[in-house]
Specification:
Number of domains: 1
Structural class: mainly alpha
Helix content: over 70%
Pfam families: ABC2_membrane_2
Subcellular location: Cell membrane
Low-confidence stretches: none
Largest sheet: none
Distance between the termini: 18 Å
Order of helices and strands: HHHHHHHHHHHH
InterPro entries: ABC-2_transporter_component
GO molecular function, one term: ABC-type transporter activity
Keywords: Cell membrane, Membrane, Transmembrane, Transmembrane helix
Radius of gyration: 19 Å
Mean pLDDT: 83
Number of strands: 0
Number of helices: 12
Strand content: under 5%
Length: 240
């Protein structure tokens, strides 16, 4: 499994596309959070990273499919999947190796953003950041990235076209993050039904963790969604 993980890591950084994806992610975050006046954290008047944790999921909607679109689609297209089949690897090892390889790349992209927290903490005159909420928000962001990664790899397992894999992965991630919340607001649903529909979406659980409250139900939700996508992917790989 770790051999596949390392292979995924090297493949992503074997071209300028990998470096550009992370640079664009960090640059876009930097511009939105410290340059553009409507979203600048410096204009809040108090130390808070809420703006970052609100914007980052939407940027991840495009970054993660960029990372995962080649995971299996490129293997099918280039014929290297046939080589993978000859190796002493089970479908689950291949899928989990791909998953952890992509997740490590996302973690690498998120690590530099910790500078934002240190910057605001040092600039704050009084109080500073809510450390518990900030740690919880980073955990939520990593779990969110893990779900998007599992969905992206699943989309990539259905096609040998990386463009289709990217669009499908981004669409699934978008629906999971905002779709259920949007549906819950339809007037045909009562307050009770709307609440349970909203609970099916990622945004509901991400918001809970971002408050610094680690609820076992939110953790079970994230692990369950990740496991569901990876099980589907394993079946697709086994069928190949």
């Amino acid at each position: 499994m770790w051999m596949i993980c390392i292979k995924e890591w090297r493949q992503f950084f074997s071209s300028a596309t990998g470096y550009m994806a992370i640079i664009v992610f960090l640059l876009l975050n930097g511009l939105l959070l410290f340059v553009f006046p409507d979203t600048s954290l410096l204009d809040f008047g108090y130390a808070s990273l809420n703006g970052f944790f609100s914007l980052a999921p939407y940027i991840l909607l495009f970054l993660v499919p960029t990372i995962t679109m080649r995971s299996l689609a490129d293997e099918y297209k280039s014929g290297t999947f046939e080589i993978l089949k000859t190796m002493p690897l089970t479908p689950s090892q291949i899928v989990w190796g791909k998953f952890f390889g992509a997740l490590l790349i996302i973690l690498l992209a998120l690590l530099p953003t910790i500078i934002y927290a240190f910057s605001l903490q040092s600039l704050s005159a009084t109080g500073g950041l809510d450390i518990g909420s900030t740690i919880g928000s980073y955990m939520g962001l990593l779990l969110l990235g893990a779900v998007f990664t599992a969905a992206g790899i699943c989309a990539s397992s259905y096609t040998n076209n990386t463009v289709i894999a990217f669009i499908s992965g981004a669409f699934i991630a978008f629906i999971l993050f905002t779709g259920f919340q949007a549906i819950s607001k339809l007037p045909v649903f009562g307050s009770g039904t709307a609440y349970y529909i909203e609970m099916l979406g990622i945004q509901f659980h991400y918001s809970n963790i971002s408050k610094g409250v680690i609820d076992i139900r939110d953790m079970v939700y994230f692990i369950g969604v990740i496991g569901l996508f990876l099980i589907i992917t394993q079946r697709n790989v086994a069928n190949r």
